[in-house]
Amino acid sequence: MEHIPAHVLRALWYVDTMSGQGVPISLQALDLFAAQAPPRDAVYGMPLFADLVGLESRLRHPEPVAEYLRKVGWIRQTDGAGVELTVLGRAIRQAGQAQENATSAVEDVVLSPTDPLVYTVLTRRLAAAGAGLLVDPYFKAEQLAWVLECTSIRRILISKKASAKERPMIAVALGTLPRGEDVEVRATAGSDLHDRRIVAEGGGVQLIGSSLNGVGRHQTSVITPEPEIAKAYRESSERLWAGAEKVEPQQISNPVSPPATGQTPAP
Length: 267
Description:
Blueprint: H1 6-20, H2 27-35, E1 43-45, H3 48-51, E2 57-60, H4 66-71, E3 75-77, E4 83-85, H5 87-102, E5 109-111, H6 118-128, E6 133-135, H7 144-150, E7 155-159, H8 167-176, E8 184-188, E9 196-199, E10 205-208, E11 220-223, H9 227-242, E12 245-246
Parallel strand pairs: 6-7, 7-8
Antiparallel strand pairs: 1-2, 3-4, 5-11, 6-9, 8-12, 9-10, 10-11
């Protein structure tokens, strides 16, 4: 709708959302909302260094939101040092939850190697899991930077047998990458670790058809199982995690500096 400015369309959405929640909006509040440009979200892309591992990275961090939320009247400061939702803010949150619940049966997607946005789709799925658990028996060390930079995943469960050669490299990545301490990786000897999945912070489960290192090379999919199946996967994942061995971060020792030209190294 090119003939209608974007801030006018945002105002119409705001009126419709608030009325749907039974909250009246004054003309002053409506103008205040329309005049405030929302903070920009993060931008993801494929810079040259990320292309080496076939995974995307964050090109722009999301902008701060606190001042915006205060100006549009969605939060207010309490008597202490904190903030709380206003009636408007609570209505927005409830409307957002209602929309999320309407689409909570997350659409199953096919991750095709011919799709240029395949990694964007995968990134969004992992990012939506919040501080969740990624279960991938064949997880690779080079994928850790992407998980740290582009998602909020806080736990990764791998196979002890399948990762015998990879675990030392994962340990070094944990010990050297920025914010490597934000993620805990464990290796399980459980024989029933096979299906790759994402267990979201809120308990939702999505199944991934292949390991992350196969995305972009082979056709696979991300599907949401039925509630009872999801419950079984969630419980088995937590059980395996509880009994798994932590991969301890490993720092790389500084190499010995070579002797200066013309000097003989000490015996």
